[in-house]
Amino acid sequence: MDKTQSFLKKKKRSFIIITSITLVLVLIVAVLGVKIAYNIPWNYDMTATRLFTLSEQSLTVIDSLTEPVQIGAVYSAGTEEMMVESLLDEYDQASELISVEYIDAVKEPSKLARYNLDLAAVPNGSIIVKMGDHYKLISSDSLFATSSEGQNTFSGEQQITGALRFVSSSDMPVVYVTTGHSETNPDEKLTVAMTNMGLAMYDMKPLNLQQTSKVPEDADIVIMMNPVEDISERELELYKEYLKTGGGLLLCTDAVTNTNSVQLPNLNALCNSFGLDITNNYVVEEDQNNHLSVSPMYLVPDMGAHEITQQIGIQELQVALPIARGIGTVEYDSSTIKHEMLLASSEKSWARIDMANGSAIKTEGDKDGPIPLAYAVTISNVAWGNEAARVVVIGDTTFATDGNIEFQGNNDLWMNSLNWIEGARQNEVISAKVIGGNSLIIRGTDFVRLAAICVGVIPLICFAAALAVWMLRRNQ
Question: For 345, which of 165, 302, 325, 433 is 20 to 30 Å away at the CA?
């Protein structure tokens, strides 16, 4: 009996010792595992739109940096925005030339003063990107938005990479936006489009050709946003000469639905010179898959296989053109002019040619679809010893206006068109990313807590439960 009790005591003591050692080892492994995992600069972006993964465009900009860049995020202690913080971590880790710091403007005014900003105050939530004497201030309002579809979007990468381009660029393409013909006012209706151009490092200037002798020599692109009044014959010849020098032109023109009078004959003559025709009409779409539910005149066109539209299609985005004008063609020299269709309506669509016809349904005088809605044109200038001119004509302006440019691929169409015309920036567009409800990113202290629970607490609870069951059965 004594031997049995002695044996049981030894077994019990041995069990307690082994259990205690095992418990200590599990705790040590859990603590070390959490510490190692927390310190390793690695994370996995589980968001559907890769909110916290830098795009190839951003990485290209970062790789091109030649001087140190300081990024300062202005937040009161404890108010840091998690999404911004996570994205800034990616920039910080992407290059040794980029350093990120957080600044409490109230408690640490000296930190903010080091940036030498010519500003009376910097609002909380702002991000400062600075290289040398150049800086760009990103407001918190520009980081988050709600699209026309009611989706919450995050423009952090678009804004920060745009700021990096701005502070590091020494050569900005010059874009002239025409005035003097009742064009759409960019300061009133194209503020988002203009802002996005600034982020992409375009230097924007106004151009009234009625007051100058020619298109400025530094013009890389001329933008004409729905001129309501026609250009003069003198301007027509100046634009033709500009295109002969290898210039770039983006023309957006809306349908005029209430008149049959001849519209913009000189501007149409300019388009005829490179094989396009903008005679007035509007397109009605009867395929429900190719228009928005609000109206059969709010077109969602099919996209052609071109550099401008290719990435939009790959991302499975749509473009919406409200009340669009069909773009026609006239006879042209195919040996010097190349047409590539960008957008077109479906086979079930039709174009209203007679604007006096008030019928809501297709009539005999209407043109059958598909109707081309946008073209990219390359004009060979070998005969003049200059590089080729590039032109994009889109039968709609409203797609780029505030409130519409946020729709899916509309901004991509706008920026891709400019980048293609400019010639060497086809793939630089970074779109705002939709914040989905099916995404999960855990970083910082939240990651430590979750890791401790998963690696430490849950296993210990299971172990304690198993030990309790064993002890209860042993004492029965």
Answer: 433
Gap between the Cα atoms of 221 and 204, Å rounded: 10
Instruction: Calculate helix-pair angle for 156-168, 191-199, nearest 10 degrees.
Output: 60
CATH class of 56-142: alpha beta
HSE-CB at 421 with a 13 A cutoff on CA atoms is 28
132 Rama class: left (phi>0) / alpha (psi -120 to 50) / beta: left
Pairing of strands 298-299, 350-352: unpaired
Q: Which residues pair with 352 in a beta bridge?
A: 282
Q: Are 165 and 136 in contact (CB under 8 A)?
A: no
The predicted structure's pLDDT at residue 456: 77
How far is the C-alpha of 408 from the C-alpha of 248, rounded, in Å?
Answer: 26
The average pLDDT across 9-19 equals 74
The two tokens of residue 197 are 């151009």
Burial class from Cβ neighbours inside 10 Å (0-12, 13-18, 19+) for residue 9 reads: exposed
Query: Token pair of 200, please?
Result: 């992409």
Each residue of 405-440: pLDDT tens digit? Answer: 988 899 999 999 999 998 854 445 565 566 654 444
From start to end of 304-416, where are the E strands? Answer: 321-322, 328-329, 337-344, 350-352, 367-368, 372-379, 389-394
Query: Domain 174-424's class?
Result: alpha beta
Nearest to 282, CA basis, from 303, 259, 314, 311 = 259
Report the distance separating Cα 467 and Cα 461, nearest Å. Answer: 10
Q: What residues form DSSP beta bridges with 379?
A: 337, 389
Sketch the domain layout of the chain as residue ranges: 2-43+444-475, 56-142, 174-424
Contacts 24+ apart (CB under 8 A), 113-118: 115/70, 115/72
Determine which of 111-115, 173-177, 387-391, 435-439 has the lowest per-residue pLDDT on average.
435-439
